[in-house]
Amino acid sequence: MKKIYILLFSCVTFLSALAQTTPNLYRAADQAKMNHWVDSVFDAMSYDERIGQLFMVIANPKSDTRNMQRLMRYVNEVKIGGILFHKGDPVTQAEVTNRLQKASRIPMLVSLDGEWGLSMRLSGTTRFPKNMMLGAIEDNSLITEYGKEVARQCKEMGIHINFAPDMDVNSNTDNPVIGLRSFGENPNAVADKGLAYARGLEGQGIISVSKHFPGHGDTNEDSHYTLPAVHHDRARLDSVELLPFKRYIYDGYAGVMTGHLYVPALDKARNKPVSMSRAVVTDLLQKDLGFRGLCFTDALAMKGASTRKSDNPSVMALLAGNDILLAPAAPINDFAAVKDALEEGILDREEVEAKIIKILQYKYIAGLNNYRPVETKGLSARLNTPHAAWLAAKLNAEAITLMKNEGDIVPLKQLDKKKIAALSIGDDTGNEFQKMLSRYDSVACFSIGRNATAQQVQNVYRKLEKYDVIICGVHTVRIPESLALRQLAEKKELVYAFFTLPYFCKEYKASILKAKAVVMAYEGTPLAQEYAAQVIFGGIAAKGKLPVSIPTLYQAGTGIFTEKTRLGYHEPEEVGASPERLDVIASIVEDGLEQKAFPGCQVLVAKDGMIIYDKSFGYFSYDGKQPVEGNSVYDLASSSKAAGTLLAVMKAYDEKKFTLNNKISDFVPELKDSDKKNLLIKELLYHQSGLTPTINFYLKAIDKDSYKGSLYSGAKNATHPVRFDAKTYVRNDFSFLPDLVSNKKKPGFTTEVARGMYLHDSFKDTIIQEIKDSRLGVRGKYKYSCINFILLKMMVEKQTGQPMDRLLHDQFFSRLGAWHTTYNPLHVMDTACIVPTENDQFVRRQLLRGYVHDEAAAFQGGVSGNAGLFSNADDLAKVLQLYLNQGTYGGEQYLSPETARLFTQSKSPTCRRGLGFDKPAPGAGKGSPCGSLAPASVYGHTGFTGTCFWVDPDNNLLYIFLSNRVNPTRANNKLSSLEIRTRIQDAIYKAINGGK
Q1: Prediction pTM value
Q2: Under 8 Å CB-to-CB from 208, ≥6 apart: which residues?
Q3: Which residue, 192, 409, 810, 951, is the most exposed by fewest CB within 10 angstroms?
Q4: Is pLDDT of 719 > 90?
């Protein structure tokens, strides 16, 4: 008999298709198999089991005895057809799900109230943006991709239904319950976003449920606590509130949730929730709009669902036409009430059975005909995939909205001319916003907390007076705009970033009108803060559009687009790189750390202008006390040649201060009467000058009468107890000449070599004389020499009329925002952030920390053409991106494209060297400084202390490795023998080229 009923039900369904929309999921199911399964299940069900299908209860995902006893009672007594879990963690919810499904004879529908994904309810899962932020995104295909990912995660959790999307059109700025849950105020835009989300969910087989029908957006009360009223006429409802739901239904999606709202235009019965109204649920939703999917009530335990005491809310909801009773306050009592109403004829038995059959059909559609328990092993890793991380980041990046930009101040430019401060209102200093700002420039950070005293607030504003640009992050709605802030906006270049509901901006109207720029980030999550900072500095372009109007300030649709001008920070997938293959880097580094090839390091990879890998490993030294962090600064050693000296050389070349065919003696006249007088600049750059590789200048400062015998020995003995390198031991019982070396700074002794060691200023003459007297090898033959770059530095200083370190600071590093990049870092930064190099017990007799490791550079006061530059990976990447951009960065031109191309693309016709840069050796054999997969176009440099960088114009790629392998001794050569740097480089190419 029931087979005949199902057949008739299906025929009615088919015949009414012209007036009604059959959901896509239903149409896609194998009808014969579905009806067979439904028929067999229905016939085998008891009367109570059938009634129980109508109930979906809320449960805590806790496995404690008391909670499980309560849930088992619902399964055994109410025979519940579904369950909606409250907040918890994934593994526990999965375990409880498995236990309940095992106990239930009929598999249950498991639902999620996940408007912004699993993280709305489950800790330890990917945090996606809320709907209003998504409403700012122009590319709706990203919303669909987001829906797909939420669906994938739901499947991993054994979830079949997501109570999303929220299709409420939020047109009321005082709405206390919808707000950020809405996609915006434009009905069609809300529909577009909601449909994109539903398309992603249902495309992967997860039932979507739009809510809160007929529209909760224009209320100023919360249905959790009362019954809100919507006093619009039918014409307005049709054009605004109902429009997204109509489009959702007509596009064939499966679920609708009815809201606890009083809407007189739809049902004149006073204070009657539409969720309990047959005129709304049956006549409007199901008949007029043709909805044939599952109709859910909003949670029946909410105050807005309250009816007269004599009426049972579950019975009333079924009479109205709802299919599934969500979260009744008293499931056992409501089950009995529904059973009584059926027996008394209050509820029509055939109508209720039709609902039960529909529920079973959707259980089949959800795959419950082939139920499998949730696999808990590895669940967290399967939920939190690299793709999910990329998608969450991408959604945030695309949503950040620039609402005001006077004078195109954003992205910020001319960093060298502005002192920048960051003020956080309602959050502490060091938050994610300020951290990201500090990656772009030296930013002084301040905060005003909720409990700050008037004196503390006054002190902050007084300190801000000395800054030119104030970047103000507003992280709370509980601190009002102040007079001091309005005055600050009048005097300074103020850039706002709001991490709040957009409507809150109206509370800051006076200072917003005076501000230079206003960024809307919508939420205070770490990702929102990071990408807002990136928009301000040009790490990403501003692309978002405001989804709601901010009264008296900005209209919906406001959004100023900008260009990306600086390096940004994103997930590897953003540039098509494999996160899993990039993870190989960590295993290579760990290999090096375990074998003590170096105490710690930084590794950075950037592609297409995006930093996709930026990690710190290990410690400053083997004692394991101070971990390496992103702001840790390393001695670049010979990498200084290409990251520092070469920049200055290129700048001088741009200004026509020399030509490549000029003789070095034209600029260092001391060489004119030597065998080096005819050496050409290009020969120095190509390392084909014939100059000796290095000169131990320190020997000229040693008192030869203070010791007998040799300084060096091939073996350790009583006279030579100190190991110098892999093959050499040295003595350290000698003295320095007192007329050349002093233990304190005094007139004439101003060249600082190390702590407590000052060199006489005349020593610079000794250095040039040593170079002049040095042996000259074969010109035109490749022989790497530090002396080449020492002479190039002298040339630059002669031609530009200023010290090279000052030139580089003024013309490059300060403009780039590379504030960790400097010579003699102890002059400008705390020792605590500088990574130590060697414990030098030979020349300087101390642990070197902040003093250049290279002796030749040290005896020039730390500023040399061959070494001396300190930096971290983030800052070095800015210099390298300038090269890759052919002389531009941050929207500013530093070098002409012609000069940049000449120096980065030229290669010696007789060796692998470029103009100042190193390059791969032909065939990428053991003699090559690069990995075997690096193309011939790569250029860069290595450093003796354990550093390297490589720039690949073919793949728009940067690779940086910084370590202090010489700590505590330069004798440790495991970094090279283990091929750590080249192995990492090859891993990068495998990650960006699919393993090839």
Answers
A1: 0.95
A2: 147, 162, 164, 165, 197, 198, 201, 202, 253, 254, 255
A3: 810
A4: yes
